[in-house]
Amino acid sequence: MEKGALFGKYEVGRLLGCGAFAKVYYGRNIQTGQSVAIKVINKKKVVGTNLMSNIKREITIMARLRHPNIVRLYEVLACKSKIYFVIEFAKGGELFAKVAKGRFSEDLSRKYFQQLISAVGYCHFRGIYHRDLKPENLLVDENGSLKVTDFGLSAVKDQIRPEDGLLHTLCGTPAYVAPEILSKKGYNGATVDVWSCGIILYVLTAGYLPFNDPNLMAMYKKIYKGEFRCPKWMSNDLKRLLGRLLETNPKTRITIDEIIHDPWFKKGGLFKDKGPEFEFQFYHDWLDLSGLFNESYNPFVDGEKFLSDMTVDKIIATIEEAAGELNVKCRRRKDCVVDLEGPKGDFIARVEINQLTEELVVVEVKIKGGESASYNKIWKKKLMPKLSGLIYDPKSQPAEEVDTTNDEVEATPAVVSTDE
């Protein structure tokens, strides 16, 4: 690729890395001076293959993600022969390169693991499963913060088979793959990601893989049986956590919610042991609350969410009452699902309520059909203000339990464009 201005917007510089179907270059936004990474994919090598569907899925997924520990997709550009991903530039490079120089201290490992779990938990909350988590897919920015990247093998809830509620596509990197994937009987996307996080934590603190063998089948047997040992220098709390992360039975493997309450995990750093205050801040970071009252609707953002500490029945009753006042049809489909239809059938939206913690639920609104303009006019400008009393307000909680100094979440809408 020749150096120069890409689409008149980006200066293209040195090659950062390359694979079988893509190359990544350093770039700079000409107008703002911002450093970016530009992933260039050759269309001729992917058209007509499964990789094309992976690329489309990766674009859709990355456009929905906005988290401080996930590489951000700024823009997608295309011409007849190439596709260009303009993404966040992580100056520190791969985490793999750092750990290859020697194992990390438990404190440093904890810092990266906390950031990893924050990002993975955010993805799972949005129904996205990475399925290829490994140090090579974890970058570090100039501030030393971890950034998850490469969502090419990710899965979304739509790919789950309705008959068993599981994923079935075999994917991942051998040393990081979960035992249930090897069984070929289907698997839960969240639990396989947790397993991979456990392998990563082991590698960071030990400096080598827990399951390793020059013979691939021999390594798979070790993984399937869960045969590994923790080095003697690891603390007992860390050994216990690794044992739960690398539990071969996915049904009893530790969950994200259990991880964030683990004693070793909570020591210092990003997640301090602050009870309800900590829980709220963790989940608050997952949600783009600022977009709730945004005047413009971006279909790339998959609906809207807010936290509430009201009961499900109270939330639905309030929605039904407010909808009735605006002549909006309201149909309760399940215990925690309500469909809304505009007065003229000009939009259809679905409200889903899911339990997040014992005290909090997440109310998610998705536009299912019709005109976004009508949805904006009725939902955002008329219906949502009537529901403002449902939104969880940490400032109303006792001062000793909740720290409200970091309540505001900065969020910028994703911009994904295609230029021919």
Estimated radius of gyration:
23 Å
What's the number of structural domains? 3
SSE series: EEEEHHEEEHHEEEEHHHHHHHEHEEEEH
Q: What is the count of β-strands?
A: 16
Structural class: alpha+beta
Report the portion of residues in β strands: 15-25%
Can you identify the CATH class of the largest domain? Mainly Alpha
Average pLDDT figure: 76
Name of the CATH architecture of the largest domain: Orthogonal Bundle
Low-pLDDT sequence parts: 156-171, 272-281, 283-303, 397-420
Helix content: 25-40%
CATH topology term of the largest domain: Transferase(Phosphotransferase), domain 1
Tell me the layout of helices and strands.
Layout (H helix, E strand, L loop, with lengths): L4 E2 L3 E9 L3 E8 L5 E8 H4 L3 H15 L8 E6 L3 E7 L4 E2 H5 L6 H20 L2 E2 L8 E3 L5 E3 L6 E2 L22 H4 L6 H18 L9 H10 L10 H10 L10 H4 L3 H4 L9 H11 L17 E5 L3 H14 L3 E6 L2 E5 L5 E9 L5 E10 L1 H15 L34
Antiparallel strand pairs: 1-2, 2-3, 3-4, 4-6, 5-6, 7-9, 8-11, 9-10, 12-16, 13-14, 14-15, 15-16
Cofactor: Mn(2+)
Family: Belongs to the protein kinase superfamily. CAMK Ser/Thr protein kinase family. SNF1 subfamily.
Organism: Chenopodium quinoa
Short summary of the structure?
This protein has 420 residues and is α+β, with helices and mostly antiparallel strands.
